[in-house]
Amino acid sequence: MQKSLYQYGMIGLGTMGCNLVLNMSDHGFSVAGYDKNTEQVNRLKSLTNNSNIGAFDNINQFVASLNTPRVIMLLVPAGKIVDAVIETLKPIISKDDVIVDCGNSYFADTQNRIDYLLKDGIHFVGLGVSGGETGARFGPSIMPGGDVKAYELLAPMLNAIAAKVNGTPCTAYMGKGAAGHYVKMVHNGIEYALMQMIAETYHVLKNICGLNNKAIHEVFSEWNKGKLQSFLIEITAAIFLQEDDLSEAMLIDKIADTAHQKGTGAWTSKDAMTIGSPTPSIDAAVAARTLSSMKNERVKAASILATTTNGSTANINIQQIEDALYAGFLITYAQGLALLQNASSTHAYDLNLKTIASIWRGGCIIRAAMLETIMQAYEQEPTLQNILVSNHISTEINKVLPSLRDTIVNAINFSIPTPSLTASLHYIDAYKSAWLPANLIQAQRDFFGAHTYERTDKEGTFHTKWHTNIQ
Ligand SMILES: NC(=O)C1=CN([C@@H]2O[C@H](COP(=O)(O)OP(=O)(O)OC[C@H]3O[C@@H](n4cnc5c(N)ncnc54)[C@H](OP(=O)(O)O)[C@@H]3O)[C@@H](O)[C@H]2O)C=CC1
Ligand SMILES: O=C(CO)[C@H](O)[C@H](O)COP(=O)(O)O
């Protein structure tokens, strides 16, 4: 008798794939897993004896074990490996089958893969998953996009396995084409900036306020009970209590100060620049990680360049630093969501910003209490260009902006780099400026390149023959 076939396939049984398989199984879905690494296959076998999970180290047997049309999810590293897996699958799967890339793939690659596979009638879905290991296991935030019919095949399962906020699943159809991977990319861009600003705040608490790890833990724990309540603040509080297994020190003091990155933050900045939607807090966070990785150069520069402090005494308290970080968070969400609003028309995704804010409230790395307010802002005004000018958020920001300014001034006086907090302040200062000195840029462009300019008092474009003695 033919054994019953699995409803879903999962290729890649590492951190995310293995946990997502277990999550799907818990919710009653049958899943076959495959990995080229037999250790991962054996690990999955050892973690479960549920009959609705299969574990394969042979791709042909894996494909043969699936119900048709086949729905095969990928959780392998982004880039060439995704293409390699597609090429392996293509000859052994059929028209109407669905490949769902759940990794952090670049959105333009996803669009190319959609077009490429559609020639053979194979549907390709780009789907972002956030929540790390625990999220994948017990409820992530899930951002699917692409072909609606293919999405409909997945929807009941995604709704079941996603995190829930007040009973609502943290997943929804994002939009056409590569919309799912685009939204996940921007999620990660926001993640980079929030993490960077938390790190900057740690630097201020440690080097200006003179707090030790225990006191810093207490500060973040308190902040997590208030308006900054979020996953990243919660884990930050926990990090400052972790002892090192290999020495007498606290672990945080033994971790090298060189941050790594896999590219999603830089991709966010790159597309934001391309489509003309400023994300300076994210750009600064990407650059800060890169600068941190230049450890040897930094150590050499530290012995050559003077630390320029102006001798000021500290004039900042913990409440102001909390307000500064809160302002930075709101301004970063504003940039990321404005980018999504602009990308929605540029890339024809048809995104719903309220839905995105809603599914980021739970399961994902950037989940935060303030997303509830952000969601409500879109509920009141669905076409809101920027959350900073919404009724509630503008009131909040106006209250905390002086603290952001004061925190940065103190950091500057103490020679402490706060690039993302500062970029956030500059963003809002520029965004709320009815006048900016861009008239001078236009004059310069016209001066050296006859690029023309517009006037404040007349319609049209103008060029001036500028008076100069420069040859
Ligand atoms: N870790 C996280 O917190 C998150 C990760 N992601 C994304 O999810 C994806 C997977 O990440 P993660 O689970 O952490 O990665 P892991 O490296 O833990 O797992 C990937 C698995 O895929 C296997 N693999 C590699 N090539 C192939 C292949 N050709 N065929 C079959 N299996 C293969 C790897 O085997 P081997 O070890 O032998 O190479 C490994 O077991 C990435 O795109 C990542 O960016 C998204 C959200 C969160
Ligand atoms: O997608 C994720 C969470 O949602 C990844 O865990 C995270 O973005 C890792 O990225 P990087 O290695 O660049 O810091």
TrEMBL record:
The keyword Cell cycle does not apply. InterPro entries: 6-PGluconate_DH-like_C_sf (IPR008927), 6PGD_dom2 (IPR013328), 6PGDH_C (IPR006114), 6PGDH_Gnd/GntZ (IPR006113), 6PGDH_NADP-bd (IPR006115), 6PGdom_BS (IPR006184), NAD(P)-bd_dom_sf (IPR036291), Pgluconate_DH (IPR006183). GO terms for molecular function: phosphogluconate dehydrogenase (decarboxylating) activity. Keywords: Gluconate utilization, NADP, Oxidoreductase, Pentose shunt. SUPFAM superfamilies: 6-phosphogluconate dehydrogenase C-terminal domain-like, NAD(P)-binding Rossmann-fold domains. It comes from the Bacteria. It is an enzyme of class 1 (oxidoreductase). Its EC number is 1.1.1.44. It holds the Pfam family 6PGD. Pathway: Carbohydrate degradation; pentose phosphate pathway; D-ribulose 5-phosphate from D-glucose 6-phosphate (oxidative stage): step 3/3. Residues 180-467 form the 6-phosphogluconate dehydrogenase C-terminal domain. It catalyses: 6-phospho-D-gluconate + NADP(+) = D-ribulose 5-phosphate + CO2 + NADPH. The keyword NADP applies. Homodimer. Catalyzes the oxidative decarboxylation of 6-phosphogluconate to ribulose 5-phosphate and CO(2), with concomitant reduction of NADP to NADPH. Belongs to the 6-phosphogluconate dehydrogenase family. PANTHER family: 6-PHOSPHOGLUCONATE DEHYDROGENASE (PTHR11811). This is 6-phosphogluconate dehydrogenase, decarboxylating. It comes from Ferruginibacter yonginensis. The gene is gndA.
